[in-house]
Design goal:
Structural class of chain A: alpha/beta
Number of domains of chain A: 2
Family (chains A, B): Belongs to the RNase Z family.
Number of strands of chain A: 18
Largest interface: A-B, 37 and 37 residues
Cofactor (chains A, B): Zn(2+)
EC number (chains A, B): 3.1.26.11
CATH topology of the largest domain in chain A: Metallo-beta-lactamase, Chain A
Subunit structure (chains A, B): Homodimer.
GO molecular function (chains A, B): 3'-tRNA processing endoribonuclease activity; zinc ion binding
Oligomer: homodimer
Largest sheet of chain A: 7 strands, mixed
Amino acid sequence: MALSVLILGSSAAAPTLSRNQTAQLVTTERSQFLIDCGEGTQLQLRKYKVRFQQIDHIFISHLHGDHFFGLVGLLSTMHLLGRKTPIHIYGPKELKEVVEVQFKYIGGPGLSYKIIFHGVENRKDAIYEDQEIVVTSFEVKHRIKCFGYKFQERVKPRRINGKRVEFYKVPNYFRSKLKDGADFTTEEGEVISNEVLTDSPYPSYSYAYCADTAYNEGMLPEIKGVDLLYHEATFLEQEKSRAKKTFHSTTVQAGTIAQKAGVKQLIIGHFSNRYNDLNSVLKETKTVFKNTQLAIEGKTFLAGDSKSKK
Amino acid sequence: MALSVLILGSSAAAPTLSRNQTAQLVTTERSQFLIDCGEGTQLQLRKYKVRFQQIDHIFISHLHGDHFFGLVGLLSTMHLLGRKTPIHIYGPKELKEVVEVQFKYIGGPGLSYKIIFHGVENRKDAIYEDQEIVVTSFEVKHRIKCFGYKFQERVKPRRINGKRVEFYKVPNYFRSKLKDGADFTTEEGEVISNEVLTDSPYPSYSYAYCADTAYNEGMLPEIKGVDLLYHEATFLEQEKSRAKKTFHSTTVQAGTIAQKAGVKQLIIGHFSNRYNDLNSVLKETKTVFKNTQLAIEGKTFLAGDSKSKK
């Protein structure tokens, strides 16, 4: 029922012994999606006991190594473990060339499964959708082309009210129609409104991942009102000029975007290695947006699990 | 004075939480050389406190991911840390294409230092040499082109005998000549033989790295009599047919090569993930070649530090 995000890496640029490079696992009821894949992501997936052969869709934000150098290793291990299911990779269109050449000289029949590349553009229509979720991409503001991704749960089915369904003797075969909103007509010809027989669906949640980006109000329409927002906060506010120069964001900028977008909950990450202790990073962001948490490796965030009112 | 090898990874194919993929650091008195670079090698270098900006030469055996997927991450971090010194990379000539494309889309002026690629061939002359060491390559027997590397220390300078040098009043400027074997003529015209003034040099050691290989007596001339040999032992002897099929070696095969080559000490590695406990792997190799040790992450082996007689 939940839309959740497991943090696999929080480090900007180089990995350290305590912080991995960017990668996140988005989980819905039926599926797992990987966003970005820094070096060592496959070990992070093992560490957190993710059954990574069940990941069929990987979203890469941009072609800086700290966001994709772990991809070929993961794909390679999937092959070694005998994967047959195709995998879909979404990202800047040049990613295809970059990945394929890594497997060009491995010899033999190549990988045991197909990789299907989807070049992402800055567009409003879905780049992926299934019965649970719709994923859209949006361009952020970085040194090179870089995409954010939004995961929006579809409207969920209405929930059957067991007692009333029993009372009105609704047959089992009709239950899926009830979930879709149909009224029920009894054998006597009486029409029972769907609202009598069902309760409102569980809420549909949304998660937006803003990748590496400078302060960019241009993306506000894309992330407006999401339940859970990941925004990078590479630097403290005192490094604002450095953030601008490197097309990254400060704590205050991340908080401001969250506040202006009216999101429910903010996760900050992509921390510069200059900050051993992240308390000041968190504290500074909270001065602008209170419901903020740190993207720490191994931590899971639930969209909708917000202390602020919905 | 020593030629040593630090093991950074021992795992065949996929990395695990306890075993990294192949990488080794060869250290001489003045230099550090990296052999192979599986995913996560940069973190292994950090873990074992190697000052990796001092590595100027990297040797890659072949283009299977478990031997080079960590290379671009390491090169990238060297860049992020402001490296200026060029780095030399030796390996199959296709490695240049595979590495360069990873940095093709990073934007800006590119890396802060030059990468100089050296396409390795199966040849007898040195691919690298300096005042301490000569590195040669040799082809091993794998599914794709794969090279082993031999590190041979040059003959070391003779060691000055302090007491006698003082007795014969050899001036300081002449000491380097003594180390090179020159005789000394006193002010009175007496010729003092170099052998009187100096002692024999320390022994010169050698290390051979056999990469991934099937049983291959063809390389015996290249590794004959080395002080320290690394030979893969992916499988126990009971998996001999699997070893043959995948162009890997068994314990007994590794031991047999060591024994036939008359090496002083054998390190085995590249262990299949099917073996949690490596005792049986070690034990089985020792039935053929007694002076064998396991390539465990973090372990350092000294060439010449052999229990067998020299």
